[in-house]
Every structure is written in C-alpha cells, then in structure tokens.
Amino acid sequence: MAKYNNRKVYFWLMGSCLTLIGLAWFVVRLFSIPAAIGMSAVAAVLPPIAVIMANWGQDQR
C-alpha cells in the first residue's frame, strides 16, 4: 500500500512541475517575466523532490 501512495505523490509532484512550466512559458511570461522565472525555478526543484518521495521507505538491499 505504501508503494501506491509513493507513486501517487510522485505523479502529483511531476504533474505540478509540468503545469508550472507550461503556465510559466505560455501564459505568465506575457504578463510578468520575473513571475515566470520564479515559477520555472520552483518547477526545477520539484523533480528531485518527487524522486525522493517516490523512493521513501524502500529497502536498500
């Protein structure tokens, strides 16, 4: 059951990453470039966090 929850968290975080990148590059940059850069920076941090969360609690054998 924990593996399913880890996978769910992974997909939510990666979906958030893709959404942030898409919004920043195609919508927000038209109104505020600094906000788009900030959104892209947050999106760049999400994939490593998603991987850590997906592997949380796994045996290291």
Q: What is this entry, summarized?
A:
The chain is mainly alpha-helical and 61 residues long.
Features of this protein?
61 residues, mainly alpha, 2 helices, 77% helix, membrane, DUF3099 domain-containing protein, DUF3099, transmembrane helix
Could you please describe the fold and organization of this structure?
The protein is mainly α and 61 residues long. The chain has helices at 2-26, 33-54. The longest helix has 25 residues, at 2-26. It starts with a helix and ends in a 7-residue tail after the last helix. 8% of the residues are buried.
How much helicity do the residues have? Answer: over 70%
Note the beta-strand portion. under 5%
Biggest sheet features: none
In angstroms, what is the radius of gyration?
A: 14 Å
Sum up the overall morphology in one term: elongated
For the record, give the distance between the C-alpha atoms at the N and C termini, rounded to a whole number: 20 Å
Low-confidence stretches: none
Using DSSP, what is the number of strands? 0
Mean pLDDT: 89
Order of helices and strands: HH
Q: In DSSP terms, counting alpha (H) and pi (I) runs of 4 or more, how many helices?
A: 2
Structural class determined from secondary elements = mainly alpha
